[in-house]
Amino acid sequence: MIKAELPKIFESYQHQLNTYTKLFYKDLNNELYQTHKYFLGWIDEKGKETDVSGKSFRPSLMMLINESLGGDSKNVLPLAMSIELFHNFSLIHDDIEDKDEIRRNRKTVWKIWGEEIGIISGSSMHALASKSLDLIEKKYNNKKIYFRKLINKICLAVIEGQYLDISFESNFNISVDNYTSMIEKKTGALIEASAIIGANIENTTKENLLNFSKIGKLFGHMFQIKDDYLGIWGDHNLGKPVGSDIIKKKKSLPILKLIESSNMIDNKNIKMIFSSEILDDKSKEEILTYMKKYSIQQFCEKKLQNIYKECEKTIENLEIDTIHKNIFKKINYFLMYRDK
């Protein structure tokens, strides 16, 4: 099998975005912004320079779409930065909500500076995500209102998705359809918005706009479902031990599908296991046995395959050159077959 990895061009986009964003932060001297620079991977907690930035998947997707339609990367950078800052703001707050102490192999913002500073850090990054839209080139002024409205709409969708995710924590009666609605907001909305923005900077056909929007939505679904899959059937050597989401009692797709599919007796036992204050390895193995009984792994694999195939078909329908089509296919392959 071909190794699943993002296209090399994403490294170029990430470099351009990092350079542009660092320039944006150059005159922001308040001590507060040290927390931003830390979270973005530019410095360590003592202020020493580092380079541990994330993959910047969402803005890179936007930049790739813009490029495939003949656009210039300098025109898309303010929007790409806005999306990346917004995404990172949501992660800072997400870490507080979930009490996560580690992200990207480093301590989370709240773990170092406390919850209060963590909240302020995330909120101020959200404000900067909005402010960065002021940097859009004047020739796109006629589209600026549309972009601002779209990003505000997506912002609200992501926050609504976070609320739903939290509300699911103590509820066992969540359907797979409810879960799908939640991930469309929390994870999918920002990826879909990145695709829509990338397709709207330059003029293109209605068919391209619809197909890029669809690809963004499908990528968002695949991204989250694959995460859920790896949270159950991951590889310890690659960072996700088998059954890690079971131990965390995370309401992920495999767990919700198991609860939805099991018979009355098994359902009662499964809910009893998850109602325990702490789950041990024995409990994890019991849940994995139930998952095998109800073919949950096969269900998730089939769901991923269906999205993958639909994406391949949609990519073929894009009115762009073959080189860029192949790059989109490589992203699709990465999302389908990544192992971490």
Layout: helices, strands, pairs:
Layout: H1 9-25, H2 33-39, H3 57-68, H4 73-98, E1 102-103, E2 106-107, H5 109-113, H6 115-131, H7 141-168, H8 176-200, H9 206-233, H10 244-247, H11 253-261, H12 264-274, H13 281-293, H14 296-316, H15 322-337
Antiparallel strand pairs: 1-2
Helix pairs in contact: 1-3, 1-4, 3-4, 3-8, 4-6, 4-7, 4-8, 7-8, 8-9, 9-14, 9-15, 11-14, 14-15
Overview of this protein structure:
The structure is a single chain. By secondary structure, the chain is mainly α. The protein is built from 15 helices and 2 strands. Strand 1 and strand 2 form a beta hairpin.
Characteristics:
2 domains, 15 helices, Farnesyl Diphosphate Synthase, globular, 340 residues, two-stranded antiparallel ribbon, mainly alpha, 2 strands, single chain
